[in-house]
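hey all, quick one before standup. I had two proteins in the batch that finished overnight and I want to keep them in one place so we stop losing track of which output belongs to which input. First protein below, input sequence then structure tokens straight from the run.
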Amino acid sequence: MLISLALDYHRADIATRERFHLDAMRTTELYSAPRDAGITELLMLSTCNRIELYGVATTGSADGVVTALTALSRRWMGDDPRVDELLATATHRVGEHAARHLLRVAAGLESMVLGDAQILGQVKASYRTATEAGGVGPVLHRLLGLALHTGKRIKHETGLLAGRHSVGAEAAALVAARLGQLAPLRCVIVGCGKTGQRAARQLVKLGAADIVCINRTPDRSQALAAELWGRAAPWDALHREIAQADVAIVATGAPTPPVRRGGLELNRRVAGTAQRPLLLVDLSMPRNIEPEAVGLPGVSLVDLDALQAPVHAAEASRRAAIPAAEQVVHEELELWRAWVAEAPARDAIRPLSEVLGELCRREVGWVAGDAAAERAADRIVAKLLARPMAALRAEAEQGGDVDELAEALRRLFDPAVSPPQENVPRPPTAGTALR
């Protein structure tokens, strides 16, 4: 049974999401921790606006699902004792509801920026990380494959991705709306990943001419600065550069805020800009600008939560594409339903499929080599089992019980099952008279 726990901007503010955020080290620990017996697969999806953990429970009973969700929250929290707090705060989804939600996430329908162009890449990266960590099995492989296919169809078949469609680009639009003419203003970009790059490019499109790029690894900041005819500054000059700026957009993956009130206050005083207006935009999760910085004269702050209102106002042009996108999600969800419905039939026929496949590979390989054998085996087995699979699928769809047949096939073909002892007469023991 598919289950999930989720914190997103719909139901959890930035402070809550920040409290339960998983950094790279905690993500590694999540996947490397001993597996709970009730959860067979695991995937964590984390973006600036959501943290979601998906699992596959070994049972679909009500009690079993509750136990599995608790185990999932313990995996999320590690040694942190706030498991009950997470369970009370997070959204719980089970079965098809969890599958539908993930398809909508990949489609950009659940993003703060409707049709967010970055979300599909974030889903793909999370899928890759979970796969490399050994967390993904057949259920999540199938679901993530459908999710990525959904996102690609949305991109090519609907207008949901028209116009600006990223947090970075929307942040730049907000800056232009607040400050007006950007050409005379100095704009500092801290963090030159995808979000920072999109923000910087959109600023230039909107008229910004004085762009300063800062990144922990200088290669990225130098490349972005060269692209935009801007200037790259070293990481240790961060506070000095922001103190001399009119606007700074911060989008890094730092676990603690690199932009601090004390450093900013000192450098603004040294630069003679202590009273000068400064707009700070924090696009990071967890937050990368100390909230106390707002207490400085002239300093104002926009964070991810504050972006919601202007983002919703800007997405009107894409709302017309929602019905088409919802239809794509519906069609892909139907494929998921069919795959889930076929599970009993697949389980029933798997032992026979594996035996036939191994036999074909061995016999064809003897004549034509291993490469040809692999291809031939898959085709031969698929053709041989097409009719039995169709019959089993129809039986399962009609509510029939295929468990008895599954057990028979398992006993007949699963090499892990010991064959029953044949009823062969035992030889007589010494002293036993033959009759």
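OK second protein, same deal, sequence then tokens:
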Amino acid sequence: MSFFVPTLSLYFFGRYGKTFLSYCLGILLVILLVDFNESGRRLSLAEDYTVTLGLLISALRIPTVLQSVIPFIVLIASIDTLLKLNRKYELVVARAAGISAWQFLAPLIIANLLIGTISITGLNTIAAKSMQLAETIVVERNLGSPRPTSVAPWMRQRTEEGDTVLGARATSEGGTRLSGATFILFDKDQRIKERLEAERAKLTDGAWELENVKRVRVLEPVENLATVTVPTGLKAEFVGETLTSPDTVPFFELSGKIATAKSFGLPSTSYEMQFHRLVAQPALLAAMTLIAAMVSLKFVRFGQSLTAILGGILAGFVLYVVSELIQAFANAGTIPPVVAAWLPVLVASALGTTVLLHKEDG
């Protein structure tokens, strides 16, 4: 018998596709509501904040969040599809016709490989561009979080006048535009000379241009200035490598970012981790299918069990936690990014394949 059964495979493929899309739509709505509530709590104190603007920002963030939760959607959709097929005895009939688990799982695995490929080639680009647009809106409208901590990492620049340490609550355009920016200027003896707090800042050729600035100096009254220029030797490419989040870089631009970071002598681990994680995503989704199958095959022989269903979902969450933990080690430079990206996939695939072989072939 052929490994693929055309009519049955197309039927299972269509059933799974409809289930996956329905879960996607439902989870998208939940993501939008949760993100809108959270962003509204953080940004509503800004003068320019409106409900419409908050919804727009949350909508622009949805593709990025969706890309992160796709493995869970795949797991739940795979379990749900197989449960429904079991409930209607369709898998029982398929087995009675001599079709093995590998044959009726093949359409789901192929569907998830396609979903993973579309995710890294299409959804990732949309997510990166929409996140960049969301950051631009936050910076231009000065909607940075009112919390005193800086979202962007602190940077130190050196000039003939002395060093300057700078940070911001939000960045856009590769870190060349800042919102809620703070500049701490030092003299040549490394003593704090003044502190500048600006609503917005923009990197130009040889200088930072600050707008709506509050200047604080020792033993002097606070000054409010419309504009202030701070000299700098930083280049836009260097700032972009330091402040740009990997989530805002499209997949096809990551290799260039990695090369640029290495040319500046900057750590490229975060970009490498993002690249390998995206490359491994189709295989991760296929592994989620095997985890779902581990649960479904038991139902065929021994009846459905809520404990087994929860066990399958728990296995998926454990895989996610382990992946995040290994990724943290990779970002810290403990293990290579390629190992961190592929190790959870290989372990999950080996475990799922082993269990299926045991159940199918003894």
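Flagging for whoever picks this up: Residues 155-248 form one domain. Confidence is low (pLDDT under 50) at residues 145-151.
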